[in-house]
Write a structure and sequence with these properties.
By secondary structure, the chain is an alpha+beta fold. It folds into 5 domains: about 90 residues, DNA Primase, Chain A (Alpha-Beta Complex); about 130 residues, Alpha-Beta Complex (DNA primase DNAg catalytic core, N-terminal domain), CATH 3.90.980.10; about 110 residues, 3-Layer(aba) Sandwich (Dna Topoisomerase Vi A Subunit, Chain: A, domain 2), CATH 3.40.1360.10; about 80 residues, no CATH class; about 120 residues. It is about 55% helix and about 10% strand. The protein contains 26 helices and 16 strands. A 5-stranded antiparallel β-sheet has the order 1-2-3-4-5. A hairpin with a 2-residue loop joins strand 1 and strand 2. Helix 3 crosses helix 4 and helix 23 crosses helix 24. It starts with 5 loop residues before the first helix and ends in a 5-residue tail after the last helix.
């Protein structure tokens, strides 16, 4: 895909109203030369978040998040850089230009934009038809009967397709769309007597949007239990791929990023009920087969994924398949067990959103969930049944991270239910040959490695590494001052030897960082490539560059202060305290704050 020109990105930055953009996430009030409010990135009671409207940068004095408008959208909307630029360009009416775009790629892009416009028109039509047509009265009654209010239905743009055969086809044709385009967008299909007819007729329409809110297709529910299929989705096409789709992701990702969690359920009405109840970080996988692409999207939105599937066997199997994928993607997966015969929408309707929150509070790790499932399905009345259960328990215990509270709990639970000594289960695991082809044991090694970065210091280091990579990319993007700022980045600013190696390589090859990449160090090559490509595709301002450097400098001083405190080095502490305050003063001045 061709990159956007730097001029385009600068025009996006210039067009942004920073106060309006940030003000949609948190209430801001003017204090001196800046605006302050509660930080949208962490929970706080006293405002520590600051916005400089003139320089168009933000900074939180509490958690240290900082950057420009594009970084703000990336962080709050869980979008990558190109998607954040496109979202801001759409919002502020800026035309984006691409560098050296291949004519065929441009043709594909323009066709895609035309199909997106066609699907958007259909979504607006279905939505209007639900609220204005007498034909949709039964649909309105059904949705109301599920306890869903008008506001949440309008928020998600729920609609109704007319019972007639060709309303959408005829209207689109009058506006210049070809039948082939209607079929390509999943809105029409060939009729028995030739020509094309509407694919969706007399159904409740659930628009299926991507993370930016662009409608790609529809899920359509019949009103009559006798009508089959009960749910009819848009068929796979140039825009819509069911395996990538998460219903409600565009409305959930902001709160998911803030809370650090995202809740995955099965159905459309489950999501609507949860959002209506205030659990707005909820999405639906629209079935029980959670795909790796969906799991990747969930992981981009938040580090912890709660699965709240139906309590039947298919729902449980879906959770276990998802668990195996999560181990590969450094996603923490927790299982909220639903009461037998109840889905989230029914639970919220009968007992309120608080009941669902209690389920989330009691969520289990996947090994704990599997242990309970194993015991529930085992025949413990016979020696043969108990032996089979014990055999199944071995890889299950191995799937829990070694030397963890999770493994201890799984061992304790299984030992109690299977009536064996805890040491019997752990010995069986330890004596198992390494080469045994055991998915559960293999999962344990992968799972233990994947879960580790989620804890404490490792998570902090991940965040620090991201900021360091961002800063080096900004140096490459802001070439007028970037080389100077990069030269000021010493070892104390960086959290790992890997990032120090990246800095050294970029400093040596500032004009072309992708030359002389070490063939024997794939990690270094990958990190350098990441910052180089990001530096190519984004522009940066001097103010944003300076702000990020000051944040790294503040982090360096605070790390040294913590070390000096542990070592009881009072002289070093006395030197560092004024240095820390000096950096804070500079940040205050940049943000327009007054002391």
């Amino acid at each position: 895909m061709a990159l956007y020109t730097r001029e385009s990105i600068e025009r996006v930055r210039d067009a942004v109203d920073m106060v309006e953009l940030v003000g949609a996430r948190t209430d801001l009030r003017r204090v001196g030369g800046s605006y302050t409010g509660l930080c949208p990135f962490h929970e706080e009671r006293t405002p520590s978040f600051s916005v400089n409207a003139e320089k168009k940068v933000f900074y939180c004095f509490g958690c240290g998040e900082s950057g420009d408008a594009i970084r703000f959208v990336e962080a709050t909307e869980a979008l990558d850089f190109p998607a954040a630029v496109e979202m801001l360009a759409d919002r502020y009416g800026v035309e984006l230009r691409r560098e050296n775009e291949d004519p065929r790629a441009e043709q594909r892009r323009r066709r895609r934009e035309r199909l997106l416009a066609l699907v958007e028109r259909a979504a607006a039509y279905y939505e209007r038809y639900l609220w204005e047509s007498g034909d949709a009265r039964a649909a309105r009654d059904y949705l109301s009967g599920r306890g869903l209010g008008e506001q949440v239905l309008r928020d998600f743009r729920i609609g109704f397709s007319p019972p007639a055969w060709d309303r959408v086809v005829a209207a689109a044709g009058r506006d210049g769309y070809r039948a082939e385009e209607l079929a390509a967008a999943g809105l029409a299909q060939p009729g028995r007597n030739g020509g094309f007819i509407d694919r969706f007729r007399g159904r409740i329409m659930f628009p299926l949007a991507d993370a930016r809110g662009r409608v790609l297709g529809f899920g359509a529910r019949s009103l009559s239990e006798a009508e089959r299929p009960k749910y009819l989705n848009t068929s796979e096409n140039e825009l819509y791929h069911k395996g990538r789709q998460l219903f409600g992701i565009h409305r959930a990702r902001g709160m998911a990023a803030k809370r650090g969690r995202i809740v995955a359920v099965e159905g459309y009405t489950d999501v609507l009920a949860l959002h209506q109840g205030g659990i707005t970080e909820s999405v639906a996988i629209m079935g029980t087969a959670l795909t790796q692409e969906q799991l990747a999207e969930l992981g981009r939105a938040a580090g912890t994924v709660y699965l709240a599937m139906d309590a039947d066997r298919s729902g449980q199997e879906a959770m276990l398949r998802a668990a195996r994928g999560a181990r590969e993607r450094d996603v923490e997966l927790l299982v909220a067990e639903m009461p037998e015969g109840t889905d989230p929408a029914e639970l919220v309707s009968s007992d309120g959103a608080e009941a669902f929150e209690r389920l989330l509070d009691g969520a289990l790790s996947v090994p704990e969930f599997e242990a309970r499932r194993l015991v529930a399905s085992a025949d413990l009345r016979t020696p043969h049944g108990r032996d089979r259960a014990i055999d199944a328990a071995r890889p299950l215990v191995g799937s829990a991270p070694a030397n963890s509270a999770t493994r201890d709990e799984v061992v304790r639970f299984l030992a109690d239910k299977l009536d064996v000594e805890p040491s019997f289960l752990t010995t069986q695991i330890e004596e198992r040959p390494i080469g045994v082809a055991d998915r559960g044991a293999d999962g344990a090694r992968r799972h233990g490695a994947a879960r580790a970065p989620r804890a404490g210091v490792s998570r902090d280091r991940d965040a620090a590494s991201r900021k360091e990579r961002t800063f080096i990319a900004m140096c490459l993007a802001e070439r007028r001052h970037g080389r100077e700022y990069l030269s000021r980045l010493d070892d104390g600013h960086l959290s790992s030897d890997a990032m120090r190696a990246v800095r050294d390589h970029v400093a040596r090859h500032f004009d072309d960082p992708l030359v002389d990449l070490p063939a024997d160090d794939p990690m270094l090559s990958a990190l350098v490539t990441e910052v180089a490509l990001r530096g190519e595709r984004e522009a940066s301002s001097q103010d944003a560059l300076r702000l990020t450097f000051l944040e790294l400098e503040l982090q360096r001083i605070e790390r040294e202060l913590r070390h000096a405190t542990r070592e009881r080095d009072f002289e070093r502490q006395r030197d560092l305290w004024p240095a820390r305050e000096g950096v804070k003063v500079q940040i205050n001045e940049l943000m327009g704050q007054t002391q």
